[in-house]
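Slide 14.
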Amino acid sequence: MHKLGQLKITDNFGARRVLTLDKPSFTIGRNPESDLNLLDLSVSRQHAKIVCEAGCYFLVDLESKSGSYVNDKRIERVQLQHLDRVQFGREGDMQIQFVEVTPVAEPRHSSPTLDLQVSGSFDSGSSSSANEELQKLARFLEVNQAFRSSFSPDDVLRLIVDSAIEMSAAERGFLLLKNEAGELEIKVARDRARNTLRGDRAAISQSAVERAMKTNRSVVLNDDTGFDSKSGGSAARLDLRSIVCLPLQRFKMREQMGVTSLLRPEVIGLLYVDSRMVTGALSKTALTLLESLCFEVSKCLESVRLMGEEKEKQKLEQELAMAHEVQSMLLPIIFRHFDQFDVAARSIPCRYVGGDFYDVITLEGGSVAFVLGDVSGKGISAALLAAVAQGGIQTQLRTGSSLADAVTNLNRVVEEKSAANRFITFFCGVLDNQGNFSFVNAGHNPPILARSDGRIELLSTKSLVLGAFDIAQYQALTTKVDAGDAIVMFTDGVTEATNGSNEMFGDERLEKLVQRSVSASAEQIRDTIFEHVLEFTRGLPQGDDITLLAVKVKEGQLN
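Slide 15: predicted structure.
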């Protein structure tokens, strides 16, 4: 009869345990599925294995980064000898020794049992030895350290259940979490051999679960005092003799009038272990460690939730940044050279993308159309409707429609494509070579026509906003512009910009500013207005998109 191999493990607390090498291949690593699960970050997920061949035991390193060592020598494959010292990675705080023992005829130990007693009752003189208590404490600290390591969330949850089984000497362990509908689902189901349980093997006591959820307190039950009557039919059917069911809680905070208060904890799941055997009382240390483990589980799950939210936020920010780039490409920044006038424009969305839009469209015969619009609302939906309107008016004008017909047709498109609560304030003006400026104002802030002699005119046709009624008809008006005149089109983000005193920039202030700047170029007019608006708000958060389009008729260039 060949000798049986064992690993004697002593942790940094002095707690000792013995693992029997009773499998043809005994795995070691950071993977929770490993037979010897080591949590140090220097240990690889699949670090090494011990194989039994012809009665001899060989340690095989699985190309780990930090290596496997026997008697302080790094190895790839070596036969283990009695009393060899074994080390994996930089696991310096743990002492592992290989020993060979002669197997006895009787089984070395009986079926795994769960160390429990009736809810709330503990024996201070627990039969658990000091070494067993140290093992439980050491395992808890190992798991606690794993929360800071590079484990995946699924690995951590499996590790938690395995550790709960080990600390309670249970046969099975489960982690149940609430789904989006608020119903409990089994996320992890394991047995003492670290096998995943499925189907009928994953059945649990529903009454114990319901009791823990209802009371939001730990439930500890066994067969000694009316267990069947307390746990109902499911426990009897499963032949369970011991159950521990502990709630996982999320603590919510509320801030009101500068005071942060703690709300009633919310139960988000359960940690559940059970067994068909009873050997004695669950020590107070074991239950305390299990409850502490549940607290760490709750923190871990909250961290995973927050990390998921952060990833979604980053993904959304990337998509919004891309949308901002696309929208910026739709809004011209550099304009072609025009003989009769200068053009300058700028738009600052209050979010990544906005509902303001503008365009300068060259038409046949030398005419040029100037477009400015403001979609109600903000964000992606407003930006999409702005793109529809910008493309729609360009198509209408370049296919030969008159200005009035183009806006009328655009209104029908907007009404059809937009939601009931969406509309667009819109201005479009067409300037020809003779200085005739035809325009339609669909509910937009009247652009300012500043004459070179100091007079101010407001360009309005008192028409409905786009998208309100599909039967709306739009008529164009025409005025004459002369050399030295300036036209400033803007959205309400300019005039409604607010300072610290809750005072708006206002139409009057803007009109006077344009009047004083009429002799400047279009670019200078644009920059002057933006400087004054930003100075007026003095760095306060922008409440709306700010867009401006300025046109300055050159001296002596109109026919």
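Speaker note: The chain has ten helices and 28 strands.
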